[in-house]
Known about the structure:
Layout: H1 3-8, H2 25-32, E1 48-53, H3 56-67, H4 71-88, E2 96-99, H5 104-110, H6 114-126, E3 129-130, E4 135-137, H7 149-157, E5 160-162, E6 170-177, H8 181-192, E7 197-205
Parallel strand pairs: 1-7, 2-3, 2-6, 6-7
Antiparallel strand pairs: 4-5
Helix pairs in contact: 3-4, 4-6, 7-8
Amino acid sequence: MGWLDWWLIPPCPLCQRPAKNVFCPDCQRRLQADRVSSWPLETTPWPLYAWGIHRGGLRQAIYKLKYEGQRRIGSLLGEWLGSCWREHSQQRQPYTVIPIPLHRERLQQRGYNQAALISQAFCEQTGLRHLPQGLVRVRATAAQHELNPLQRQQNLSGAFALKSIPSTPVLLVDDIYTTGSTIRAAEQVLATAGIRLVGVVVAARTQPAATQAQTLTPLWPTPPPPRPLQT
Length: 231
Ligand SMILES: [Zn+2]
Protein backbone atom coordinates (compact mmCIF):
# COMPACT_ATOMS: atom_id res chain seq x y z
CA MET A 1 0.00 0.00 0.00
CA GLY A 2 1.53 3.28 -1.13
CA TRP A 3 1.69 6.52 0.84
CA LEU A 4 -0.87 8.02 -1.52
CA ASP A 5 -3.48 5.53 -0.31
CA TRP A 6 -3.31 7.13 3.11
CA TRP A 7 -4.52 10.34 1.48
CA LEU A 8 -7.00 9.00 -1.01
CA ILE A 9 -8.76 6.09 0.68
CA PRO A 10 -10.91 6.75 3.75
CA PRO A 11 -9.47 5.13 6.86
CA CYS A 12 -10.89 1.99 8.43
CA PRO A 13 -12.93 3.30 11.38
CA LEU A 14 -11.46 0.66 13.69
CA CYS A 15 -7.72 0.91 12.98
CA GLN A 16 -7.33 4.01 10.78
CA ARG A 17 -5.52 2.19 8.00
CA PRO A 18 -6.78 2.86 4.47
CA ALA A 19 -9.75 0.59 3.69
CA LYS A 20 -11.60 0.33 0.42
CA ASN A 21 -14.84 -1.18 1.77
CA VAL A 22 -15.36 0.63 5.10
CA PHE A 23 -13.28 -1.86 7.13
CA CYS A 24 -9.77 -3.03 6.28
CA PRO A 25 -9.35 -6.79 5.65
CA ASP A 26 -7.93 -7.39 9.14
CA CYS A 27 -10.81 -5.68 10.92
CA GLN A 28 -13.26 -7.37 8.57
CA ARG A 29 -11.86 -10.71 9.77
CA ARG A 30 -12.16 -9.61 13.40
CA LEU A 31 -15.80 -8.72 12.82
CA GLN A 32 -16.52 -12.05 11.15
CA ALA A 33 -15.22 -13.78 14.27
CA ASP A 34 -18.15 -12.35 16.21
CA ARG A 35 -20.73 -13.44 13.69
CA VAL A 36 -23.32 -15.97 14.81
CA SER A 37 -24.28 -19.12 12.99
CA SER A 38 -28.03 -19.39 13.70
CA TRP A 39 -30.63 -17.53 11.67
CA PRO A 40 -32.77 -16.73 13.54
CA LEU A 41 -30.60 -16.77 16.62
CA GLU A 42 -33.57 -17.12 18.97
CA THR A 43 -37.22 -17.85 18.35
CA THR A 44 -38.95 -16.66 21.52
CA PRO A 45 -40.60 -14.36 22.28
CA TRP A 46 -40.10 -13.47 18.60
CA PRO A 47 -37.66 -14.56 15.93
CA LEU A 48 -34.47 -12.63 16.58
CA TYR A 49 -32.22 -12.18 13.56
CA ALA A 50 -28.83 -11.00 14.76
CA TRP A 51 -25.72 -10.61 12.65
CA GLY A 52 -23.26 -11.04 15.49
CA ILE A 53 -22.40 -10.93 19.16
CA HIS A 54 -21.94 -7.57 20.84
CA ARG A 55 -18.28 -7.90 21.71
CA GLY A 56 -14.82 -7.29 20.29
CA GLY A 57 -14.69 -5.59 16.91
CA LEU A 58 -18.46 -5.54 16.44
CA ARG A 59 -18.98 -3.82 19.76
CA GLN A 60 -16.35 -1.26 18.81
CA ALA A 61 -17.92 -0.76 15.38
CA ILE A 62 -21.38 -0.12 16.84
CA TYR A 63 -19.90 2.32 19.33
CA LYS A 64 -18.30 4.24 16.47
CA LEU A 65 -21.58 4.16 14.57
CA LYS A 66 -23.49 5.62 17.50
CA TYR A 67 -21.07 8.02 19.10
CA GLU A 68 -18.44 8.93 16.51
CA GLY A 69 -20.57 9.74 13.50
CA GLN A 70 -19.51 6.70 11.46
CA ARG A 71 -22.76 6.38 9.54
CA ARG A 72 -21.30 4.12 6.87
CA ILE A 73 -20.92 1.40 9.51
CA GLY A 74 -24.71 1.39 9.89
CA SER A 75 -25.21 1.05 6.16
CA LEU A 76 -22.71 -1.77 5.94
CA LEU A 77 -24.24 -3.68 8.88
CA GLY A 78 -27.65 -3.28 7.23
CA GLU A 79 -26.23 -4.64 3.99
CA TRP A 80 -24.78 -7.67 5.77
CA LEU A 81 -28.09 -8.33 7.53
CA GLY A 82 -29.91 -7.94 4.23
CA SER A 83 -27.76 -10.51 2.49
CA CYS A 84 -28.28 -12.96 5.40
CA TRP A 85 -32.01 -12.41 5.05
CA ARG A 86 -31.94 -13.02 1.28
CA GLU A 87 -29.80 -16.09 1.73
CA HIS A 88 -32.08 -17.70 4.32
CA SER A 89 -35.64 -16.64 3.59
CA GLN A 90 -37.38 -19.16 1.38
CA GLN A 91 -40.02 -16.88 -0.01
CA ARG A 92 -40.51 -13.19 -0.33
CA GLN A 93 -42.72 -11.97 2.47
CA PRO A 94 -44.32 -8.57 2.15
CA TYR A 95 -43.12 -7.38 5.54
CA THR A 96 -42.82 -3.76 6.54
CA VAL A 97 -39.53 -2.81 8.16
CA ILE A 98 -39.54 -0.21 10.94
CA PRO A 99 -36.45 0.97 12.81
CA ILE A 100 -36.63 1.62 16.55
CA PRO A 101 -36.77 5.42 16.69
CA LEU A 102 -34.74 7.84 18.76
CA HIS A 103 -36.40 10.56 20.75
CA ARG A 104 -36.47 13.87 18.84
CA GLU A 105 -33.88 15.51 21.09
CA ARG A 106 -31.46 12.63 20.75
CA LEU A 107 -31.99 12.62 17.00
CA GLN A 108 -31.14 16.31 16.77
CA GLN A 109 -28.07 15.80 18.89
CA ARG A 110 -26.78 12.83 16.88
CA GLY A 111 -28.02 13.94 13.49
CA TYR A 112 -29.20 10.48 12.48
CA ASN A 113 -30.83 7.36 13.84
CA GLN A 114 -28.37 4.49 13.67
CA ALA A 115 -31.18 1.90 13.54
CA ALA A 116 -32.67 3.68 10.52
CA LEU A 117 -29.32 3.55 8.71
CA ILE A 118 -29.28 -0.20 9.28
CA SER A 119 -32.91 -0.68 8.23
CA GLN A 120 -32.47 1.50 5.13
CA ALA A 121 -29.62 -0.63 3.81
CA PHE A 122 -31.42 -3.80 4.92
CA CYS A 123 -34.44 -2.84 2.79
CA GLU A 124 -32.28 -1.93 -0.19
CA GLN A 125 -30.87 -5.46 -0.04
CA THR A 126 -34.10 -7.32 0.58
CA GLY A 127 -36.63 -5.21 -1.30
CA LEU A 128 -38.83 -5.10 1.80
CA ARG A 129 -40.88 -1.99 2.41
CA HIS A 130 -39.17 0.56 4.62
CA LEU A 131 -41.23 2.70 6.96
CA PRO A 132 -38.56 4.74 8.74
CA GLN A 133 -41.07 7.01 10.46
CA GLY A 134 -43.51 4.24 11.34
CA LEU A 135 -42.85 4.53 15.06
CA VAL A 136 -41.92 7.63 17.00
CA ARG A 137 -40.42 7.83 20.45
CA VAL A 138 -42.51 10.04 22.65
CA ARG A 139 -42.02 11.38 26.12
CA ALA A 140 -44.51 9.72 28.45
CA THR A 141 -45.69 12.85 30.18
CA ALA A 142 -49.44 12.69 29.72
CA ALA A 143 -51.42 12.25 32.93
CA GLN A 144 -53.02 8.83 33.02
CA HIS A 145 -56.45 10.13 34.08
CA GLU A 146 -56.71 12.23 30.93
CA LEU A 147 -56.37 9.24 28.66
CA ASN A 148 -58.76 6.67 27.35
CA PRO A 149 -57.95 2.99 28.02
CA LEU A 150 -56.11 2.58 24.74
CA GLN A 151 -53.99 5.66 25.30
CA ARG A 152 -53.24 4.60 28.86
CA GLN A 153 -51.82 1.39 27.61
CA GLN A 154 -49.67 3.25 25.13
CA ASN A 155 -48.58 5.73 27.76
CA LEU A 156 -47.62 2.93 30.13
CA SER A 157 -45.76 0.98 27.53
CA GLY A 158 -43.67 4.09 27.68
CA ALA A 159 -41.74 5.19 24.84
CA PHE A 160 -43.42 4.68 21.50
CA ALA A 161 -46.33 5.72 19.35
CA LEU A 162 -47.39 4.60 15.93
CA LYS A 163 -47.14 7.37 13.38
CA SER A 164 -48.20 5.58 10.24
CA ILE A 165 -50.01 2.28 10.02
CA PRO A 166 -48.15 -0.44 8.14
CA SER A 167 -50.31 -2.57 5.89
CA THR A 168 -48.36 -5.80 6.48
CA PRO A 169 -46.74 -7.59 9.44
CA VAL A 170 -43.69 -5.81 10.79
CA LEU A 171 -40.00 -6.50 11.24
CA LEU A 172 -38.41 -4.18 13.79
CA VAL A 173 -34.78 -3.17 13.35
CA ASP A 174 -32.36 -2.02 16.04
CA ASP A 175 -28.63 -1.84 16.50
CA ILE A 176 -28.29 -3.88 19.71
CA TYR A 177 -30.61 -6.35 21.41
CA THR A 178 -30.19 -6.92 25.13
CA THR A 179 -33.24 -7.84 27.19
CA GLY A 180 -35.86 -7.08 24.57
CA SER A 181 -37.65 -4.48 26.70
CA THR A 182 -37.46 -1.84 23.97
CA ILE A 183 -38.91 -4.27 21.47
CA ARG A 184 -41.61 -5.29 23.94
CA ALA A 185 -42.70 -1.66 24.33
CA ALA A 186 -42.76 -1.19 20.56
CA GLU A 187 -44.61 -4.46 20.07
CA GLN A 188 -47.34 -3.37 22.48
CA VAL A 189 -47.96 -0.30 20.37
CA LEU A 190 -48.12 -2.38 17.20
CA ALA A 191 -50.41 -4.93 18.83
CA THR A 192 -52.77 -2.19 19.97
CA ALA A 193 -53.23 -1.25 16.32
CA GLY A 194 -53.68 -4.91 15.37
CA ILE A 195 -50.30 -5.22 13.69
CA ARG A 196 -48.27 -8.39 14.08
CA LEU A 197 -44.56 -8.33 14.90
CA VAL A 198 -42.96 -11.14 12.89
CA GLY A 199 -39.35 -10.64 13.86
CA VAL A 200 -36.57 -8.45 15.13
CA VAL A 201 -33.45 -7.71 13.09
CA VAL A 202 -30.38 -6.42 14.94
CA ALA A 203 -26.73 -5.90 14.20
CA ALA A 204 -25.68 -7.43 17.52
CA ARG A 205 -27.00 -9.48 20.39
CA THR A 206 -25.39 -8.80 23.76
CA GLN A 207 -23.69 -11.78 25.26
CA PRO A 208 -26.24 -13.75 27.23
CA ALA A 209 -25.75 -15.54 30.51
CA ALA A 210 -23.28 -18.43 30.56
CA THR A 211 -26.11 -20.96 30.41
CA GLN A 212 -27.00 -19.81 26.91
CA ALA A 213 -23.49 -19.30 25.71
CA GLN A 214 -23.41 -22.37 23.51
CA THR A 215 -26.24 -21.04 21.38
CA LEU A 216 -23.97 -18.20 20.30
CA THR A 217 -21.15 -20.21 18.79
CA PRO A 218 -19.27 -17.98 16.39
CA LEU A 219 -18.96 -19.15 12.79
CA TRP A 220 -15.19 -19.03 12.88
CA PRO A 221 -12.56 -19.37 15.59
CA THR A 222 -11.10 -16.15 16.94
CA PRO A 223 -8.51 -14.88 14.46
CA PRO A 224 -5.00 -13.80 15.44
CA PRO A 225 -4.68 -10.18 16.56
CA PRO A 226 -4.22 -7.63 13.75
CA ARG A 227 -0.73 -7.10 12.47
CA PRO A 228 1.09 -4.16 13.97
CA LEU A 229 0.85 -0.96 12.01
CA GLN A 230 3.55 -0.55 9.34
CA THR A 231 5.27 2.75 9.70
ZN1 LIG B 1 -9.09 -1.87 10.23
